Amino acid sequence: MFGDIARFLLNTVFTLFGAALLLRAWMQVVRMPPYNPVSNAVMQATNWIVLPLRKILPGGKVDWASILAAFIASAVYVTLMVVLAGVDPMLMLPMLLLVAVLTVVKWALNLIIWMTILMALLSWLNPQSPAMPLLYQITAPFLDPLRRILPRLGGIDLSPILLFVIVQVLLMVVTRLAVSMTLFGI
């Protein structure tokens, strides 16, 4: 029971932190204004690890420091999960690094799902919400290509549903790969 609780807590904390790091990198790609309250919160939560890494990896269009920080967080997370499973992480080091990369991909896919769900819910419940422009800007690079393919049916935008299905399939593939490499879930 303690192991299950520890895995749940580790998964929750590291997934939220990894998602914040990836969101920070994505906000830079879509040129999110830094004065936005969400942007500001993400920056404050991640500055402690990203700013020192910026000295090694200077910024550009892609925030490589945030992506490296997400990989570091993922490597720590995977190592802790392996230790909780009772396996010596040094025996699996090359495999752990690959699983850490898969974990970052999984975090990114989960972030896409949650941003899309949040945007869809807010568009139905409160389309005038101040968060809508932010969510639209973040999800537009994923939804706009699908909107060009899918016709609107009676004014209903089905692109979030298609994106959700595509990302869920990708999540299944990534999770299966990681489980097959470590013999336990990440």
Architecture overview:
Helices cover 77% and strands 0% of the residues. With 186 residues, it is an all-alpha fold. It has one domain (2-182). The protein is globular.
Question: What can be said about this structure in brief?
Answer:
This protein is mainly α and 186 residues long. Helix content is 77%, strand content 0%. The chain starts with a helix and ends with a helix.
How can the largest sheet be summarized?
none
Number of strands: 0
What's the overall average pLDDT, rounded?
91
Task: Supply Rg.
Answer: 18 Å
The share of residues in helices is over 70%
Gap between N and C termini: 17 Å
Principal-axes geometry comes out as: globular
Low-confidence segments, ≥5 residues, pLDDT <50?
A: none
Percent in strands:
under 5%
How many structural units, i.e. domains? 1
Question: What sequence of helices (H) and strands (E) makes up the elements?
Answer: HHHHHH
Oligomer: single chain
Tally of contiguous helical segments: 6
Global structural class: mainly alpha
